[in-house]
Design brief:
With about 500 residues, this protein is α/β, with parallel strands linked by helices. Helices cover about 35% and strands about 20% of the residues. The chain has 16 helices and 18 strands. Helix 1 links the parallel strand 1 and strand 2.
Length: about 500
């Protein structure tokens, strides 16, 4: 995926002037050695920061080394002003972590008191309105701090990515899609640019690609991707034409932004004018690292992109769609998994999930749209059951009054045949029934949720915290009541 940033982390050790600087330097070397042994390259800044002049020197060194993420390492108590100014002037994602004491045999000259210094660092970060990533327990040995830095990487990648992201949208949302509201003010607050375009502009560009000489090559690529699922070969050329239209639009309109996501239109007029539905193309681009959301869901596209950056894998966008029938639960789930009926639901969309995330797939027509339109104009969905395995359901959303909210819930796709249509799976999330009521409904989230294929709840929660989201919902376990939940229920 070339639509997400590469992160180069620099480690800068800090030292308070009444502590031995050699203590921080020795601990920094141990930290770097531990990280490189387990995870690979990391930049060790040679300057240990004791004052503001050291801070400027260290800053120039990490910038010259090409670092776009920073670890401020309290090898001892640390200089609270200089270390937080370092974070402020760096301007990118910053993590603070502190050294634990090594041995009871060296608690006089070898005691660093970074446990105490972290408290002052956090206070000074707040005074200066600086966001920084601080692990759950931010004090550890060299090996433990190396693991903490590793957990910082998806946060750093996302922060860098969003500051360099443009979301390209086409057309207004369909009628009665007010739930997917998209106040753009909070996009700018996150550092994201947005370009809103007319469907007519997109259609004109599509027509201009009618005889594009690259179409046969894209069709061949699609045929190889689909294999036996190529049930609608007659629509592939138009889908390839549309894919090239989007890719060329991205290159022509990304401007100063290296990373792009798309919020696309797919109905009601799309089918009759373009002559197909774009679902398969949406999934193909998402698999290439350029998420394309359905129904001009701008925050859906943003959520998908965040999931792509965190997981470094293909994601999808699904409706939190329908209940699992009681007879399906009794026959295929009960007794086999530790999930109640209310823990389960079906995640569905017309056909935008990439082929690599489906058990098997076929190009088909969009059944729901074909109830009111000619079937021939609704071809282009990619249908199949979603692969079983761990997932994380999540979304970042601006409310109508421009407040950021998010939710994160880990679960799994069950190995249960859906017996339905579209890109669909039987999902299970512990305590989903309560989560559905007291987070999704109570907090007014729309029906679209992003899905990452794996358990990424910890990383996503950390990302949302770093971005300043104060209201982050999750599927709370039994005995942990939501605000407003009836304790007598």
């Amino acid at each position: 995926m070339n639509n997400i940033p590469e992160i180069k982390v620099g480690v800068v050790a800090v030292s308070r002037d009444c502590f031995p600087m050699t203590l921080s330097e020795t601990r920094r070397k141990a930290l770097v050695a531990a990280y490189e042994k387990k995870y690979g390259e990391i930049y060790e800044c040679p300057t240990c920061v004791e004052n503001e002049l050291h801070m400027r020197k260290a800053l120039s060194e990490v910038r010259a080394a090409g670092c776009n993420a920073l670890v401020v390492y309290l090898g001892n108590f640390g200089p609270e002003s200089s270390e937080t100014l370092l974070a402020k002037e760096f301007g990118g994602p910053v993590m603070f972590v502190a050294a634990a004491e090594e041995t009871q045999k060296d608690l006089i000259q070898g005691r660093g008191d970074a446990y105490c210094g972290m408290l002052n660092a956090s206070y000074n970060l707040s005074l200066r309105n600086i966001r920084a990533y601080i692990p759950e327990y931010p004090v550890g040995t060299a090996e433990e701090c190396a693991d903490m830095i590793r957990e910082f990487l998806p946060v750093a990648r996302t922060v860098v990515a969003l500051k360099n992201l443009k979301i390209i949208s086409f057309g207004p949302r369909p009628q009665d899609f007010l739930a997917c509201n998209a106040p753009i003010k909070r996009l700018y607050d996150l550092g994201v640019e947005i370009e809103e375009n007319s469907e007519l502009d997109l259609f004109e560009s599509f027509k201009n690609h009618e005889d594009d000489e690259r179409i046969p090559d894209v069709v061949k690529e699609m045929e190889e991707d689909l294999g036996a699922g190529n049930k609608k070969p007659e629509v592939l050329a138009r889908l390839a034409q549309y894919e090239l239209t989007l890719l060329d639009w991205v290159e022509a309109h990304r401007g100063s932004r290296p990373y792009v996501a798309i919020a696309g239109k797919c109905w009601p007029a799309f089918q009759t004018q373009f002559g197909f539905v774009p679902c398969y193309v949406n999934g193909r681009l998402t698999a290439k690292g350029i998420p394309v959301s359905c129904e001009v869901d701008i925050y859906g596209a943003l959520s998908e992109y965040i999931g792509t950056v965190v997981s470094q894998d293909t994601v999808t966008l699904l409706d939190i769609n329908n209940t699992v029938p009681a007879d399906m639960y009794e026959e295929s789930i009960k007794g086999r998994c530790e999930y109640s009926h209310k823990d389960t639901f079906m995640g569905f969309h017309c056909g935008n999930t990439a082929s690599g995330k489906l058990v098997s797939c076929e190009i088909k027509y969009q059944l729901i749209m074909a109830r009111t339109l000619p079937e021939v104009s609704t071809q282009g969905t990619l249908e199949g059951d979603i692969v079983p395995g761990d997932i994380t359901f999540f979304r970042l959303q601006s409310t109508a009054d421009a407040k950021l909210r998010a939710y994160v819930a880990e679960g799994e796709v069950l190995p249960v045949a859906t017996r339905s249509f579209g890109g669909i799976g039987v999902f299970a999330i512990p305590e989903m029934g309560r989560f559905y009521r007291h987070v999704l409904i109570e907090k007014n989230f729309p029906h679209h949720g992003a899905v990452a294929f794996g358990h990424y709840g910890k990383a996503l929660f950390n990302v949302f915290r770093y971005l300043g989201v104060e209201d982050i919902g999750f599927n709370q376990p039994k005995g942990m009541l939501y605000p407003g939940e009836n304790p007598f229920a």
